[in-house]
Amino acid sequence: MAKVLIIAGSLREKSFNRQLARAAEARLAGRAETEMLEYADVPFMNQDVEFPPPEAVERVRAAVRAADALWIFTPEYNYSYPGVLKNLLDWLSRPVVPGERATAVTAGKPVAVSSCAGRSAGAGSRAKLTELLRAMQAVPLEELQVGVSLDGAAFASDELPLTDEILAGLDAEASALLAAVAA
Ligand SMILES: Cc1cc2nc3c(=O)[nH]c(=O)nc-3n(C[C@H](O)[C@H](O)[C@H](O)COP(=O)(O)O)c2cc1C
Question: What pLDDT is stored for residue 65 in this prediction?
Fold first, then answer.
């Protein structure tokens, strides 16, 4: 069974993107093995501490290496993805040994991208993340990306309204991701 590593680009406990990620995990049940990547302990990228890599960095790199595919759920912060997610991806993009050619651990991995955000539904964030993933030699799915636009009621309750349309979108995105793994 394919292994899908789920990454939420928000550290917030009640994060809508985490809620969407958990819904996607539930939709993948029986079709793939899933794991949610926890990375709050990954330090800020600083080339002074790059080698040997901090333990948390070794752990997240190992999790990505072991996965057949990734599924990233990103908020939109000022038309882009949040700094915590960029920091994680920067670490994943670097060589493991000093002087070695930088081969990102994401190279060749299919990556699905989804988002929960305000009015934009995260369109800007997903577009920029897709571009970044391509630069990291990953294979982002571009045609199918679930984007959820949150309204005032959702923000007030901190509860993601999981509509049939969203669930159908997750199913379609999951199928596309698994097809990319099998290709
Ligand atoms: C610094 C900051 C900037 C934001 N900029 C945007 C934006 O440009 N477009 C948008 O649709 N939502 C924007 N938002 C709203 C977030 O996308 C929204 O709160 C989202 O739910 C956060 O994700 P989370 O619930 O997973 O933590 C911004 C929020 C923050 C904190």
Answer: 95
